[in-house]
Amino acid sequence: MMRILIADDFPLFRLGVRELLSRGLTGARTGEAGDFHQMLELLRRKPWDLLIMDITMPGMTGLAALKQVKQEFPALPVVILSQHPEEQYAIRMFKAGADAYITKAMAPEELVKAIQKVRGGGKYVSSSLGETLALSVRTNVERPPHETLSDREYEVLCLFGTGKTVGEIAESTHLSVTTISTYRSRILEKMRLKTTAELTRYAIEHRLSL
């Protein structure tokens, strides 16, 4: 029997995932979490064989949540199931410890295959993401400026893209205003931009979001 925790803040979507698993994985048992804090609480309460996790839920950012999971449960396979396109987050999530990254649009065709692959000890990469990963290791390929940012800097950039102020970002990330201002300065320097408005416009134009 495989015990799978499904973490997503939309109950109807969790229902759809349960239906996919019941059809594709004989004997799978599931649990559900609607935010990151509930997800961590359930992971700590009893053992699970696999975690299916969205990266946009209340409580904290997806990257921070995944790093926390892998710190506490390093052997737990994690499948990221996200609305965000692969090019936005997949590479960062793999570096943070994910075993598979699937968009929600791909889920009906690929979720069960991904679970079977990672349960066997492998990593699941779609063909389109495979091409992206191959290009990412080529030193002569020019990378977009936001790919030079650290994970935390990237998250702050995405939050600026939603129109949040420094104070609002500090509140949502549980960091100080001074810390967020420092991140903003680093981002501006790395991306060779001058103002917060330019950061916001860049994030919107490149469809970067959390």
From TrEMBL:
InterPro entries the UniProt entry points to: CheY-like_superfamily (IPR011006), NreC/VraR/RcsB-like_REC (IPR058245), Sig_transdc_resp-reg_C-effctor (IPR016032), Sig_transdc_resp-reg_receiver (IPR001789), Tscrpt_reg_LuxR_C (IPR000792), WalR-like (IPR039420)
Superkingdom of origin: Bacteria
Keywords on record: DNA-binding, Phosphoprotein
Single GO term (MF): DNA binding
SMART domains documented for this protein: HTH_LUXR, REC
Descriptive protein name: Response regulator, LuxR family
Modified residues (4-aspartylphosphate): 54
Isomerase among keywords: no
Gene3D superfamilies (alphabetical): 3.40.50.2300
GO biological process: phosphorelay signal transduction system; regulation of DNA-templated transcription
Lineage, uppermost ranks: Bacteria, Pseudomonadati, Nitrospirota, Nitrospiria, Nitrospirales
